[in-house]
Every structure is written in structure tokens, then in C-alpha cells.
């Protein structure tokens, strides 16, 4: 069974640009969550989508947005990039609505210059 | 109230020793407490998890101890091995609400 796939794995952008990251969850998983990981801050929750609807949202500015498609694949977008957006962005999928294991991808490493 | 406080930030243990990482929470609605292990260049992976109806759960060398009244839980790694060197995150979840992660503990086990 294929794991969670994130693309691209690495990318470099400059301030003011925008970026779109993609996540393909494990087959059959309907929930997709996004996290920002930075040294010292740990894993900061961005948002969660379930059946194409945003179910939970973290405390990030509106420059961070996401969506989920009917096949459960998800994308997140960051507009007007800032230096502080440099981070590892992790996507995690899970089976359904109940509490349980998150399956993480290997992340997309974003560097903003 | 939504925070999960994790300590220590880093930990160095000799091979064969016991590694102990602690987490504390405030929200009594949390009902699922997992620990995730992350190796460099990889995403976190579930190591072990517990629900508040039990005080301890053991899987191999890994044990979660849970103290509901103190709102604390901890991870014990017995007979720590160099291969256990990784970053460990505790987390808490209430129902289908978002996971709240601790800030992580970087464990290094010396050979």
C-alpha cells in the first residue's frame, strides 16, 4: 500500500511569490491535515480537510489556504511568501472521522529567500 | 488550554539506559494521547498511543505512563539503543478535533 506522497520535496522561492504544495493521501483515507514544522516550534497545525470540507483550522494568517479534491488529494497554497514561511510542510492522512493514527508524508521543504 | 507542554527539549542517554520524556496538558477533553517518532528527512510515524481509561501501555521497549489526575503522560524507552536516536513528539486529541503536538524532544543515544 503506497504511503502519503508529497510534491515537490524541495523548493526555493523568493519573498512575495506564492507556492502550491500537493499531497496524495493513502488510498481510502478521507482526512488530510497539514502541518508546518520549524526548529523549536515543533509541529504547528495548519488545517484539516475531510471529504472536501475544511473541518479544523489552525492559527495561521489567511495567506495560507488549502483545498481537498473529490479523490481526497489535497493542496495547500501560501501567497505573498515571507522569510518566516521557510519550513518543512508535512501532510498527514487518516482513515476517517474518529481519533486515530496520522500517517505522515516526508514533507515539502520550502526555503524563502 | 490547548497546549501540550513537552520536556526535555533534548536528551542524551547512554546505550542500555532509560530515556524518559514527559508531557503535560490542560484540556480534560483530550481522549487520545499518541507519541510520534521522527528520523531526519522523514515524516513522523506513530510509535505508541494510549487512551485515558488505562494508566500504562507497553509495546516492546516503549511504555506510556498516563496520570489522568495530574494531566501528565510520559514515554519511557527501556534499554535505549543508538537506533532510537530521533525526535519524539507527544500529542493529544479530543474527538475529531485537531491534534495538538508538543514541541518535540531530540533524543541521542550514545553507543
Number of strands of chain B: 11
Stretches of chain A where pLDDT falls below 50 for ≥5 residues?
none
Strand fraction band of chain A?
over 45%
Helix and strand succession of chain A? EEEEEEEEEEE
Could you say which structural class the secondary elements and strand pairing of chain A correspond to?
Answer: mainly beta
Describe this structure in words.
The complex is a heterodimer of chains A (113) and B (111). Chain A has strands spanning 5-7, 10-13, 19-24, 31-38, 42-50, 53-57, 64-68, 74-78, 87-94, 103-104, 108-112. In chain A, the strands form two sheets. In chain A, strands 2, 4, 5, 6, 9, 10 and 11 form a seven-stranded mixed β-sheet that branches. Chain A has a four-stranded antiparallel β-sheet with strand order 1-3-8-7, with no helix packed on it. The relative contact order of chain A is 0.33. Chain A has 113 residues and is mostly beta strands. With 111 residues, chain B is mostly beta strands. In chain B, 0% of the residues lie in helices and 53% in strands. Chain B contains no helices and eleven strands. In chain B, the strands form two sheets. In chain B, strands 2, 4, 5, 9, 10 and 11 form a six-stranded mixed β-sheet that branches. In chain B, a hairpin with a 2-residue loop joins strand 6 (56-59) and strand 7. Chain B is globular, with a radius of gyration of 13 Å. Chain A binds chain B through residues 4, 33, 35, 40-43, 45, 48, 55-56, 58, 90, 92, 97-107, and chain B through 6, 31-32, 34, 36, 41-46, 49, 89, 93-104.
Amino acid at each position: 500500500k503506497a504511503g502519503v506522497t508529497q510534491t515537490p520535496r524541495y523548493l526555493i522561492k523568493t519573498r512575495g511569490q506564492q507556492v502550491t504544495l500537493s499531497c496524495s493521501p493513502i488510498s481510502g483515507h478521507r482526512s488530510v491535515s497539514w502541518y508546518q514544522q520549524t526548529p523549536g516550534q515543533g509541529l504547528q497545525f495548519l488545517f484539516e480537510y475531510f471529504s472536501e470540507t475544511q473541518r479544523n483550522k489552525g492559527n495561521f494568517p489567511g495567506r495560507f489556504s488549502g483545498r481537498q479534491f473529490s479523490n481526497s488529494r489535497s493542496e495547500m497554497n501560501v501567497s505573498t511568501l515571507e522569510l518566516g514561511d521557510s519550513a518543512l510542510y508535512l501532510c498527514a492522512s487518516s482513515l476517517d472521522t474518529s481519533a486515530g493514527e496520522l500517517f505522515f508524508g516526508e514533507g515539502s521543504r520550502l526555503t524563502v529567500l | 488550554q490547548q497546549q501540550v507542554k513537552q520536556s526535555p527539549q533534548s536528551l542524551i542517554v547512554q546505550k542500555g539506559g532509560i530515556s524518559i520524556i514527559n508531557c503535560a496538558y490542560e484540556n480534560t477533553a483530550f481522549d487520545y494521547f499518541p507519541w510520534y517518532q521522527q528520523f531526519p528527512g522523514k515524516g513522523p510515524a506513530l510509535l505508541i498511543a494510549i487512551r485515558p481509561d488505562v494508566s500504562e501501555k507497553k509495546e516492546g521497549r516503549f511504555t506510556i505512563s498516563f496520570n489522568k489526575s495530574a494531566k501528565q503522560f510520559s514515554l519511557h524507552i527501556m534499554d535505549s539503543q543508538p537506533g532510537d536516536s530521533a525526535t519524539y513528539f507527544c500529542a493529544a486529541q479530543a474527538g475529531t478535533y485537531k491534534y495538538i503536538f508538543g514541541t518535540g524532544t531530540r533524543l541521542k543515544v550514545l553507543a
